[in-house]
Design goal:
230 residues, alpha/beta, Glutaredoxin, 11 helices, 5 strands, 8% strand
């Protein structure tokens, strides 16, 4: 077998033999992963799941519980009613159906545990899309084992492992910690898209985040948090 000749080494040697400066390869900056933090109990996750993967190829999905991001903990009935109306308006703007699932907003913790399991296997995108459609398109209770089984099948996840994950309460602690960390960084609602050192809070900010990906100046802008509509 002949000797392998590395062209970059030959170029550097050639530059040194001529008394010139050795050629160096350009530095390539590998961007940090773009992460979407989500809670299946929020219709905003359903809105985001329908288009986030197309907007951000290679997107990493991570579950976080929304509770720690709420200023007053569990929202009041009046606050929930305002949120329901806002979600209905947003669904109309996006041209998407919206059916409130059974047990909302208290249901969905088991589904989040399965989402955490799916994220560990890098299959969260398919699971979130299937689960959010079942919840907010079909109005199904995500904690129903049969509904969870449908979402798991759509994401090609092993059913037995999904059902075990659904009952694993230790996963709640990790997701609560993720919510607290996002809140500490200034996030006030989910989903949150983390792009480099910036956070874009709310699914309506996905377009702004996509613009930041396309524009190097915006992508490297040091502002740590983006919550405004501007």
């Amino acid at each position: 077998m002949g000797e392998v000749i590395w062209l970059d080494q030959r170029r550097r040697a050639r530059g040194a033999s001529r008394g010139g400066r050795a050629e160096t390869a350009p530095t390539v900056t590998v961007p940090a992963p773009t992460v979407l933090w989500f809670d299946l109990g929020s219709p905003a996750t359903y809105f985001a799941a329908e288009r986030a993967e197309r907007m951000f190829p290679g997107l990493t999905w991570r579950p976080a519980l929304a509770g720690p991001l709420l200023a007053d903990g569990t929202p009041s009935a009046a606050a929930r009613e305002v949120a329901f109306r806002a979600a209905s308006v947003r669904a109309a703007e996006l041209g998407m159906p919206l059916v409130w699932p059974e047990g909302h907003p208290s249901a969905g913790r088991a589904a989040m545990r399965v989402a955490a399991f799916a994220a560990e296997r890098a299959q969260a995108s398919a699971f979130v899309l299937a689960a959010s459609r079942l919840a907010f398109c079909g109005g199904f209770d995500l904690d129903d084992p049969e509904i969870l089984a449908e979402a798991a099948a759509a994401a090609v996840l092993p059913l037995d492992e999904c059902l075990r994950a659904a009952g694993d309460r230790s996963r709640d602690l990790v997701m609560e910690a993720a919510g607290r960390e996002l809140a500490a960084q200034g996030a006030d609602r989910l989903p949150v898209l983390a792009l480099g050192g910036r956070l874009f809070c709310g699914e309506e900010r996905l377009g702004q985040a996509a613009a930041a990906v396309r524009d190097p100046f915006l992508r490297h802008r040091p502002a740590p948090l983006d919550k405004s509509a501007s």
